[in-house]
Amino acid sequence: MRGPNEDSNYLERHNDDLVNGLSSKVAALKRVTMAIGDDVREQNRLLNDMDNDFDSSKGLLQSTMRRLGVVSRAGGKNMLCYLILFALFVFFVVYCLSR
């Protein structure tokens, strides 16, 4: 039969073991959350870079469309047909090269 002092020591050791287990789980959780935070920061950086790239592409496309409008007004219907045929040819060549 154990005395009250032995029960107290047993409970203290058991409690210390549980605290150590909880401490290791908290440390592992901290490492995971820090890794998630790093990943989120990296993804935000990539998204910002993509946004900048899309903005520059949008500006380039707008200026090209403006020029196309000028060409179509200046050259008439025949020039617009040639321009569309040229664009289709360019897309076909890029398609063939990308395959």
From TrEMBL:
Q: Which organism is it from?
A: Caenorhabditis brenneri
GO BP of this protein? protein transport; vesicle-mediated transport
Q: Name the SMART domains on file.
A: t_SNARE
Its record classes its membrane topology as: Single-pass type IV membrane protein; Single-pass membrane protein
Q: Which GO terms describe its cellular component?
A: endoplasmic reticulum membrane; Golgi apparatus
Q: State the protein's name.
A: BET1 homolog
Going by the entry's taxonomy, the superkingdom of the source organism is recorded as Eukaryota
Q: Which residues cross the membrane?
A: 79-97
Biological classification of the source: Eukaryota, Metazoa, Ecdysozoa, Nematoda, Chromadorea
Q: Where in the cell is it found?
A: Endomembrane system; Endoplasmic reticulum membrane; Golgi apparatus, cis-Golgi network membrane
